[in-house]
Amino acid sequence: MVQTLPVVHRAVAACICVIASLASIGPEALAQGFPARPVRIIDAFPAGGAGDVIARILSPRLGETLGQTVVVENRPGAGGNLGAEVAAKAPADGYTMFIGVSVVLAPSRSLYASLPYDALRDFAPVSRVGTGAYLLAAHPSLPVRSVKELVALARAKPGALNYASGGIGSGQHLSGELFKSRAGVALTHIAYKGGPPAVAAVASGESEIGFMSVTAGLGQVNSGRLRALAVTSPERLPTLPNVPTIAESGYPGFEVTPTFGLYVPSATPKDVIATLNAAARKTVDHPDTRDRLAAQAVVAGSSTPEELGRLLAAEIAQWAKIIKAAGIRIE
User: Does residue 6 lie within any of the structural domains?
Assistant: First the structure.
C-alpha cells in the first residue's frame, strides 16, 4: 500500500524544493530577470545641477530600453559625499545607480582624512555618459571682462573678491583653488549647498565671481545676469564660442573637464551590470540624447565599464598630485 503525505506536508516539501532550487541558481542566473521593478539614479547634488539635468535627460529613454521606470533622486550634502555614500551602501541588485562626476569622486580620496566610502572599492562602473566643463563667471557689475582683468583686480585687492562654488571639495571649489594657485591671487571661497545656489549667488551679486558647471550657468549667461569670463575645458565650447578657455587666457595647461558616469555598488552581479551598460550605451549614443546633452554643453559619449574604471583611476592619481601641490585638505 502506497503511503501519501498529508496536503500540508506536501506543500511544505514543495516550498523546500523551490528554496533549494533558487539557492542553487546563484546571482548571475537570477539576474536574467532584471529589471522587474523601477530603477533609481541617485544624484549627489540639488535639483538643477549638471548631474541632475543629465540624469533627467537620460532617464526616459533609459527606462524605455530597460522596460521599467527610471527615477532620479537627489541626495545633496557634504560636497557630494552624502549621495555617494547612500549609493555605495545601497543593495547591490542593480536597482540603484549613481551618476558620479569624476571631479568629485576622484579628488575626495585625497581631500578628506576619512570617507565613509571608497570610490574604487565600493563602486562598479557601468558606463561613461559624457564630459562637461566649468565656467568662470562674474556678476555684470564687476568691472572685469576677461581673466586678465580679473587677475589684475584680484591682485589689487587681495582677498576682497568672493568666489562661489557648489560646496567644499566640489569640482567648482577645486577649479577655484587651482586657478588661485596658477594665477597667484587671493580669493575668498564661499561654499554653497550645490551648484544652483552658487549660480544664484553670483547672479544676485552676493558673490562677485564663481566657478559653476556650464549646464547650471548657461541660462543666466544667455539672459545677461552673468558675464562669462572663461571655461575650464581644453577647447572652446560650441555653446559659448566667444568665451575663451582659461588656458588660452594666459594659463597654458589649465584644464578641468568633469566626466559624468553611471555606477552601481561594487557587489552588483556582472549580468546586471552588462544589462545596464547595454541600456546606457543605447541611450547615450542615441542622436536625440546627444543633441539634448550638447544643448547643455555636455559632449555625450558612452563606454565599457572597464574604460570608465580606468578613467576614474587615472583621475584619482592626477588629482592626488594637484591637491598635494596646492596643499588643499578638508578635515
Answer: no
